[in-house]
Amino acid sequence: MTTITTNSDLIPLGSRPIDRAGHHRSDEAWLDAAYKSEAALVLILQGGLPLVTAEGGLVWLGPEVARLAPEAKPLFLGLDKNKSPVFAVEMPGDFDLNSSLIAGTGDFGDLRTSLARMPEMDANLASTARSLFEWHRSHRFCAKCGAESERVEAGWKRACPDCKAEHFPRTDPVAIMLAVSGDKCLLGRQKMWPKGMWSCLAGFIEPGETLEQGAARELYEEAGIKCDPAKAEYLFCQPWPFPSSLMIGLILPAENEDITIDPNELEQAIWITREEARAVMAGEHPEIFAPMRFAVAHHILNEWASRDS
Q: Locate the Nudix hydrolase domain: which residues (predicted)?
């Protein structure tokens, strides 16, 4: 039996989570007191961009955020190891950081860029907050009756005041998979990617199919590679806040090596050897660089490359 060298708890964006303390979400009095307490830790975003320091970590604020954005509704993320309540706040579009009381603490930065330098806990919390705020932004209205819904339970649910329907944050499952054939694996790239960037293939799981079936379907649709879903090997998974997915890592043995790409999905796909994959992971390949470490594709490729066979 193959021993997997890592697991989902160690994959970036999902590792080092805090206690979500879901039992506090419906306790308005507790939430109000916690948000106002000196122990409160608050991260802020604006338009999906987190406030980060020059070093790349989150800027952590306290109850003073209520003065910076008095109308903002905080999202309760949980309790840290010291039992301090952790919140996230989406700043309004007209908030001017440079003229505010917190000018000079950091800048609102692109999350993808920032994740490469964030401490693990910061990355997990920023990703969670961004996913939830994006969900609220795109799900303001009840899918059942069309009325504007209300944000409840500290931001973890929306409730319709008209038809009483309840709506919960959406997470979209995505298979991200490495097709392998003997001592080779398949990598693909999209035209918009930087030169030298290659990765595993990926695709959304559709209604009525399993993870393994979706992975096999996507490999065939995008690259013409046939795989038996029954032979798929599950590795690990990772939350991915762009906008809100769960990336599920798999390895599938290929039944053929002839590549036929779908140009709407890929610019190119290639087979590389295990030795080449090891060079990629070591940063020594002359033409290919590894996916960023905060992406699950990095860990899938590293898992396969580190095996003897």
A: 169-295
